[in-house]
Amino acid sequence: SAYRLCIMRKLPSVLARTLTSGTSASPGLPDMFQVRSKLRDIVGASTNWRDHVQAMQERKALHTLLAKRQEDLPPRRMKDSYLEVILPLGSQPEIREKYLNVHNSVRFGRILEDLDSLGVLICYTHTKQETQQRSPLSIVTALVDKIILCQKIIQPDCDIKFTGNVSWVGKTSMEVKMHMLQLHDGDYSPVLDATFVMVARDPENKRPAFVNPLIPETPEEEEIFKQGELNKLKRIEFSTASLLKMAPTAEERNIVHDIFLNTLDTRQEGEGTVSFRSRKLPPNSVWMEDAKLKGLQICHPEERNIFNRIFGGFLMRKAFELGWATACSYGGSRPFIVSVDDIMFQKPVEVGSLLLLSGQVCYTEKNYIQIRVHSEVYNANTREHHTTNIFHFTFMSENEVPQVVPKTYG
User: Fold this and answer.
1) Which of 150, 163, 301, 377 has the fewest Cβ atoms nearer than 10 Å?
2) Which residues form the HotDog ACOT-type domain (predicted)?
């Protein structure tokens, strides 16, 4: 199979933690509705859009509860933040419709929303102080490092279980590892592994705030923590090697030159008369500029998160759906998501924004399609555009797809 294999993990019972009473499917496990309700309680968010200004004013008073140094906060273990949550698609058919797509499988965009909410709750569990009813921290998603799927189709009528915990901690950021499993013949089998990075900020979401340090207890946990540190270093290295900051390597220059030579129109007479401007498309190929789809979203209050900005999971769902549509129209057959990488949350999206999404096929190989979705907000009053997110999705099409060919250096 072209899909990467997931290794079935034995979930240690010692880590089994529950929030509140759960569903009939798995007694004691909370569901996604309870996860979101719990988040509202922790932050003290308003349930009514008109009251959000008052709710945010009340949060200002929590500034006094912030730690001045990380050393003042009690260290935590990985199992302290471990959570299990149920999505009862099998045992509660009434919630199925929201998760169903036209192919009678689960909408992956909805799963992205659930992972985002769960990741935030796991971080609040890690940073919870017993004496405080409300958290002074504003915990937001900084990036989705990686999501790898090991099942092509997610069934719409079998219960899903999410598990996860904090796997690495910096001064103000936390890495969260989550796993999704689905019930088949009485056993939960793995569907995906996800790694998110969350950042903690002050009650008004203006400045970074310290989080509890993490202490690995076993050799296995030491390894997980070390991997988190490596992931952080890789991200720093990747951002400094950006083409906007650094020239291409010798290998990259050769690739660009080869593409250029392969698309030159050499039918003109003699070597000296070949025009650099005259380009031809190789057989079974598509110019990159012709492999785009665009979308627009008006950001209504319904899509806001607990901090009254647009919910990161909603942005991921919309970007994924445009990415899927771009892959579908490019390949001419149903695409399946294989992995999600490097979703950067650069700026929050305010309620009322016009969100412009642009899907671009940026690489193809056999029946794989790599899609980049660029998201920006347009402020109608100032007429300014600001990039908010960049998303990367890898799809596998049912059939082999044409090769995508760049025309310009950019």
Assistant:
1) 301
2) 81-204, 289-401
Q: Is 80 within 8 Å of 151 (Cβ atoms)?
A: no
DSSP for residue 106: B
* Strand residues in 71-172 grouped as ranges (E): 83-87, 138-149, 160-169
Taking 3-state DSSP, the helix, strand and coil percentages for the chain, each rounded to the nearest 5, stand at: 30, 30, 35
Q: Which ranges of 241-311 does DSSP label H, i.e. alpha helix?
A: 250-262
Contacts of residue 63, Cβ cutoff 8 Å, sequence gap at least 6: 136, 202, 203
Nearest to 66 by CA among 258, 210, 239: 210
Structure tokens belonging to residue 176: 């969260």
Listed residue (212, 59, 67) closest to 138, CA to CA: 59
Task: Calculate the dihedral angle through the C-alpha atoms of 4, 7, 13, 15, rounding to the nearest 10 degrees.
Answer: -50
Please give the Cα distance from 210 to 215 (Å, whole number): 16
Left (φ > 0), alpha (ψ -120 to 50) or beta: where does 114 sit? Answer: alpha
Q: Rounded to whole angstroms, what are the CA distances from 139 to 53, 233, 386, 389?
A: 19, 22, 22, 18
- 107 vs 173: CA distance, rounded Å: 29
| Residue 44 · residue 55 · CB < 8 Å | yes
Domains defined along the chain, listed by start: 28-241 (3.10.129.10), 252-284 (no CATH), 285-409 (3.10.129.10)
The sign of the CA dihedral 360, 363, 369, 375 is negative
- Amino acid at the residue 171: K
* Token couple for 329: 């129209």
90-123: per-residue pLDDT in tens?
988 899 999 999 999 999 999 999 999 999 999 9
Contact 352, 299 (CB under 8 A): yes
Task: List the beta strands (DSSP E) in 57-159.
Answer: 83-87, 138-149
Q: Note the pLDDT tens digit of each residue in 314-369.
A: 899 999 999 999 999 999 999 999 999 888 888 888 888 899 999 999 999 999 99
